[in-house]
Amino acid sequence: MNVQWYPGHMTKAKRQMQEDLKLIDLIIELVDARVPISSRNPDIDSLGQNKARLILLNKADLADERQNEAWKEYFQNRGVHVVKVDSRSGAGMKQVHAMIQEACRDKIERDKKRGIKSRPVRAMVAGIPNVGKSTFINSFAGKACTKTGNKPGVTRGKQWIRLNKNVELLDTPGILWPKFEDQKVGERLACIGSIKDDLLNMEELALILIAYLKERYPGALEKRYEVSEGGEALAVMEEIAKVRGCVKKGDELDYAKTAGIIFDDFRSGKTGRITLEWAEQEV
């Protein structure tokens, strides 16, 4: 399965980001805690080399807590400031405030020495589509100041949000990069919904997810759907179809509907707290 998605507006958004970097002190990069490496755009790394950095492991409530801790340690060991957050509930927001000040301590000290005391930290909020940037900003600001949506591509234009006298945020559209060198990256991003579902073969993707869950989270499918995990991924999917009544006329199984149920349950956390890439494999 070959996964790619790089619409034209992303090239324009990347150019805009390059321009906006001149205006900011800090990049707050949101990643999806279920795929912390795959959901990092390498372009953000290369563009923001000389800026202070803060990584937010967003949707941490949907990810395996042991892996959340392991990933936090992974980034800290590489000298990166990192906070686990759940933007929908607001968990972790107080820590973000403290970490922004910590990440920009050198800049704040320099300003003080120059007699500049009131200039706020200007931070760019960046990340790939559907990692929850707008939801984070609204939660962080305590009010709805950006559009949100649970599909990629909601934020298109540039938006400055003044939170208080200490911090201003620049919201940016979600951008991917032109080519996934490793197709596993594309598959993981497709699983979490960062690539539009209608561009994908969702049935094939469901088989990939089932195979992964059988290996890494044995018992999760059994618990959710009351099916046996003993067979191949296709046999498990067919069992789920029967249990959930995904049957067309003539007793033909509806694989598309079954795939939809599997992904709705995975993405909402109903299948359990699951991380699709483990820190131990990256070390």
Radius of gyration: 20 Å
The mean pLDDT is 88
Please report the number of helical segments: 11
Helix/strand-derived class?
alpha/beta
Q: What is the helix content?
A: 40-55%
- Hey, roughly how much beta strand do the residues contain? 5-15%
Taking pLDDT < 50 over at least 5 consecutive residues as the criterion, the unreliable ranges are 151-156
The major beta sheet can be summarized as: 6 strands, mixed
Envelope shape: elongated
> What is the CA–CA distance across the termini?
27 Å
Query: Order of strands across the widest beta sheet?
Result: 3-2-1-4-6-5
Question: How would you sum up this structure, described in words?
Answer:
By secondary structure, the protein is of the alpha/beta class. The protein contains eleven helices and six strands. The protein has helices at residues 8-20, 42-47, 65-76, 93-103, 105-113, 133-141, 183-192, 202-216, 220-225, 233-243, 255-268; strands at residues 26-32, 52-58, 81-84, 121-126, 159-162, 167-171. Strands 3-2-1-4-6-5 form a six-stranded mixed beta sheet, sandwiched between helices. Helix 3 (65-76) links the parallel strand 2 (52-58) and strand 3 (81-84). Helix 8 (202-216) packs across helix 10 and helix 10 packs across helix 11 (255-268). It is elongated, with a radius of gyration of 20 Å.
SSE map:
Layout: H1 8-20, E1 26-32, H2 42-47, E2 52-58, H3 65-76, E3 81-84, H4 93-103, H5 105-113, E4 121-126, H6 133-141, E5 159-162, E6 167-171, H7 183-192, H8 202-216, H9 220-225, H10 233-243, H11 255-268
Parallel strand pairs: 1-2, 1-4, 2-3, 4-6
Antiparallel strand pairs: 5-6
Helix pairs in contact: 8-10, 8-11, 10-11
